[in-house]
């Protein structure tokens, strides 16, 4: 009996870890295609990050760019008034996830705003909704959810 319990316990713990790991690794999996990664990573924010820049980014995030509809005012990826059962692909990114914040360079995030995340509800925003300068403002705000 005891051995059986121990086995069950180990199975639950290891199984649970596997589920947690696969969820994280799916979030951390790079979105930029491998052949574009070098160029994407070489791209850095050409603007100096200031509190004003972050404020402009917040206004865009909550205003015309409508990021908050999906990513939420708190950046946790659960926007208001959304029926998540209608999402075909992955849920919107939780920007407070520190592992994810660390895994991505600024250039990779900029690539996403240009290209979207193909096959998901994350669309491309440059140039139709955001200019490149506005995109860097909004990304400065996205970074602030990770404590930067
Ligand atoms: C219609 C819903 C929707 C809107 C509006 C939206 N997003 Fe997203 N976003 C998503 C989804 C879904 C994902 C997850 C895509 C994936 O896992 O590849 C995502 C992922 C992201 C990512 C993470 C990409 C990565 O490399 O992991 C960033 C950064 C991002 N969004 C920024 C923004 C910004 C900034 C805005 C506003 C300009 C915005 N999003 C608006 C749905 C949305």
Task: Provide a concise account of the structure shown.
The protein is an all-alpha fold. Helices cover 53% and strands 0% of the residues.
Secondary structure elements and their pairing?
Blueprint lengths: L1 H27 L8 H6 L8 H12 L4 H5 L26 H6 L2 H10 L16 H13 L4
Helix pairs in contact: 3-7
Heme C binds next to helix 4, helix 6 and helix 7.
How is this structure best described in words?
By secondary structure, the chain is mainly alpha-helical. The protein folds into 2 domains: about 1-30; about 30-145, Cytochrome c-like domain (Cytochrome Bc1 Complex, Chain D, domain 2, Orthogonal Bundle). It contains 7 helices and no strands. It is globular and about 65 Å long. The mean pLDDT is about 85.
Task: Provide the descriptors you would attach to this structure in a database record.
globular; mainly alpha; Cytochrome Bc1 Complex, Chain D, domain 2; binds heme C; 53% helix; 0% strand; 7 helices; 148 residues; 2 domains
| DSSP summary, beta strand count | 0
Structure annotation, total helices: 7
Oligomer: single chain
Briefly note the CATH topology name of the largest domain. Cytochrome Bc1 Complex, Chain D, domain 2
Overall mean pLDDT stands at: 87
Q: Estimate the helix proportion, in percent.
A: 40-55%
Main beta sheet: none
Give me the secondary-structure category: mainly alpha
Terminal residue distance = 52 Å
User: In sequence order, what are the helices and strands, one letter per element?
Assistant: HHHHHHH
Shape verdict: globular
The CATH class of the largest domain:
Mainly Alpha
CATH architecture of the largest domain: Orthogonal Bundle
Q: Which small compounds were modeled alongside the protein? A: heme C
